[in-house]
């Protein structure tokens, strides 16, 4: 009888452990899917995977509390025209165009409902829905900073415009691909 009770107890403990492991794995998978490359970047920047996942969940909670809203079509059209003008300026004044692209992206973030209280916080807030283009934004921002002291080449500035455009289009189209690029 004692042997049967012991076996049942061990089986129950193993079952509880298996369910707990499955839940952790499922939560981790959801975070990876939600944050994309930002998941691994956050894990690498923290002391433990657990701490990184806690931070990502906190980012998600903060994001869920934000009033992020889609843009009406006329506002999207206005931003599209603004972006076209910024790109046209690139030919004659690439440094200025990159600075304008940065300002335009920041303004668009604000209009969508993202707080713009600081670059690091912007990254955290954007990571929840735009984790796949966040590296583009980081690269563009870094080039923009170097451009302020005239340390960026024209080719780097061109790359910054491409990077800004990736996030710009995601923000503009509420995370969806623009209609023209859908097949």
Question: What key attributes describe this structure?
Answer:
mainly alpha; disordered C terminus; 183 residues; elongated; 8 helices; single chain
Topology:
Layout: H1 2-35, H2 37-45, H3 49-65, H4 73-90, H5 94-112, H6 119-130, H7 134-148, H8 154-172
Helix pairs in contact: 1-2, 2-3, 3-6, 4-5, 4-8, 5-7, 5-8, 7-8
Structurally, the number of domains stands at: 2
Strand fraction equals under 5%
Number of strands: 0
Uncertain regions spanning at least 5 consecutive residues: 177-183
Oligomeric category: single chain
- The number of helical elements comes to 8
Mean pLDDT: 88
Element order: H for helix, E for strand: HHHHHHHH
Major sheet characteristics? none
Radius of gyration: 22 Å
Class computed from helices, strands and strand pairing? mainly alpha
> Portion of residues in helices?
over 70%
Coarse shape = elongated
Distance between the termini: 67 Å
């Amino acid at each position: 009888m004692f042997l049967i009770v012991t076996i049942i107890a061990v089986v129950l403990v193993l079952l509880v452990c298996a369910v707990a492991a499955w839940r952790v794995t499922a939560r981790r998978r959801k975070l990876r899917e939600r944050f994309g490359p930002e998941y691994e970047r956050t894990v690498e920047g923290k002391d433990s995977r657990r701490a990184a996942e806690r931070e990502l969940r906190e980012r998600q909670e903060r994001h869920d509390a934000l009033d992020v809203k889609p843009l009406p079509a006329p506002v999207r059209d206005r931003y599209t025209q603004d972006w076209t003008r910024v790109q046209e300026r690139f030919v004659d004044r690439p440094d200025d165009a990159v600075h304008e692209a940065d300002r335009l992206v920041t303004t668009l973030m604000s209009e969508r409902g993202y707080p713009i209280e600081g670059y690091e916080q912007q990254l955290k807030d954007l990571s929840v829905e735009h984790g796949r283009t966040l590296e583009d934004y980081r690269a563009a921002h870094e080039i923009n900073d170097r451009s302020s002291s005239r340390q960026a080449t024209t080719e780097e500035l061109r790359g910054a415009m491409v990077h800004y455009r990736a996030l710009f289009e995601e923000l503009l189209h509420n995370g969806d691909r623009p209609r023209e690029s859908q097949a």
